[in-house]
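[job 4471] stage=fold_predict status=RUNNING
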Amino acid sequence: MNRVRKETNSNKKIWILIFVVVSVFCLIFFAARGRYQFPLSERIVMTTLAPFQGLMSTVNNEIRYVTSSVWEIATVYEQNKMLKSEVEQLRALNLQSNELASENERLRTMLAYKQASTQFDLVIATVIARDSVTWTNTIMINRGTNDGLKKDMAVITSQGLVGNVVEAFSSSAKVELILDPRSAVGTIVQRPESRVAGIVQGNKDDKMMARMVNIPRDADVIEGDQIVTSGFGGVYPKGLAVGIVDRIDNDEGGLLKYAILKPAVDFQKLEEVAVIINSREALPAPLAPVVPEQAAIESDSAAGDTK
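[job 4471] inference complete, writing structure tokens
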């Protein structure tokens, strides 16, 4: 009996399984052909899955938003880095362009002065160093004996006198400025009714100014007078601008006075200079010291001739 019951139950399960399989097949078949709909099933599924779909949609949108934001931030960051790099490059190019334009303008001015000064043979040089201790005393230039420079050659700009070469090397030279207290430049007042001579040296009290010394107390020198080289001594050609009288003071002794000069050259902005390697102007003969005995003889001779 137990065996019969087990067989009967097994047969029922088989038939039920067959019925389910056939039913599913039919449902799939008719659904595929569009002859059967599942309105109730679809509603149940949609109702059950709707919250999950909404949540997944929200999560998906948030992920897309975050990803998009991160990508945009990274893109903007990279673009910002590129723009900053381009700005720095443009600034450097602009600075270099301005510096080249400034140098070109200075060299044009110097070249125009060189072409106009036909009485001189000039060598254009660049200032490459200045003495850190005595800033206003000496400079180094990038021309030397290979370019024809020698000791005691005058150094100028288009504005006026700079100084003279004190040491010449193969490819460089040392220049003593007129602001050096050790310098001595023979000068004269350019004003026709004055023509007072004197010596220009550096001013110890004001390193950016110069002094014209050995001026007689009653000499005709006034503020605003233009001071130029006298040509005596054989180093500096005559007529080079040295400076303008700023003020006049009396010497301690009381017999002489001196003039404080504002130099014609702006030594703070000195970058290019010209060296006079040859001058076609005839320099005045240097003054020879007069011996007292010779002076007396010449005076008697002149008196006899007058007679």
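[job 4471] summary: DSSP finds three helices and twelve strands in the chain.
[job 4471] exit 0
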